[in-house]
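Renewal narrative, Specific Aim 1. Our central claim is that a sequence can be written position by position from structural information alone. The example that follows is taken directly from our test logs and has not been curated for this report. It begins with the structure tokens describing the chain, in the order in which they were read.
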């Protein structure tokens, strides 16, 4: 057993671990959970949870980052139509600034699993951390969006949902170019921040936004956000 597999296995009692009710994972309804948008300077973090129907296969699933925009848009309605259950949670900027990006992401994951109700028997979450107070068994899988189809489906729903929202925010605040960079700290976005200051959709808890709000210019992209390091 690899080190990663051993870490995952410890999160769920197996038949040989003396549990009161030994678990056969192959019989469980698995809820894949993933997020999109921890790193951007603006917009919500999107979290999705999906329980796939084993009788309705969805071809082409993969980590959303490996798919093109057109591929993600093609898969989105098929996932929504064929999944046993799904939910997308958009955690707003105000909550990100109040909790910090890591805790806001974990809270979004908890809400997603709760929203699935009895459909979720085992939550498989991409990353190395689990939210507290989940209603079912759970395991964190590093690189899960490349291993578990349900997590792949969740990553696609989260990514598409967030990208669509950022395009709508662009219509409200076109000077920032949200439709192009989706809120990430590109040179064009940093230049717009320097010229116009932050809008209501910018994350004040992120350093480049704080600098822009204070009249200081962020000359280059920031270091990775702590939440990215903790969950990825």
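The sequence written for that structure reads:
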């Amino acid at each position: 057993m690899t080190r990663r597999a051993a870490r995952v296995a410890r999160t769920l009692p197996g038949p040989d671990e003396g549990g009161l009710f030994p678990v056969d994972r192959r019989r469980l309804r698995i809820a894949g959970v993933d997020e999109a948008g921890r790193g951007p300077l603006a917009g919500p973090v999107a979290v999705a949870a999906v329980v796939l129907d084993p009788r309705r296969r969805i071809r082409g699933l993969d980590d959303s980052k490996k798919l093109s925009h057109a591929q993600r848009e093609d898969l989105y309605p098929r996932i929504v139509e064929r999944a046993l259950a799904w939910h997308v949670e958009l955690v707003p900027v105000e909550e990100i600034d109040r909790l910090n990006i890591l805790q806001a992401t974990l809270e979004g994951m908890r809400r997603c699993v709760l929203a699935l109700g009895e459909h979720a028997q085992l939550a498989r979450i991409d990353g190395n951390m689990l939210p507290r107070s989940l209603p079912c068994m759970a395991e964190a899988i590093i690189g899960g969006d490349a291993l578990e189809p349900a997590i792949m489906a969740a990553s696609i729903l989260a990514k598409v949902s967030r990208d669509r929202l950022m395009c709508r925010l662009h219509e409200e605040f076109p000077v920032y170019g949200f439709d192009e960079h989706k809120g990430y700290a590109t040179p064009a976005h940093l230049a717009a921040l320097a010229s116009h200051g932050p809008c209501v959709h910018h994350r004040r808890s992120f350093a480049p936004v704080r600098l822009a709000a204070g009249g200081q210019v962020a000359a280059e992209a920031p270091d990775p956000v702590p939440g990215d390091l903790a969950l990825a």
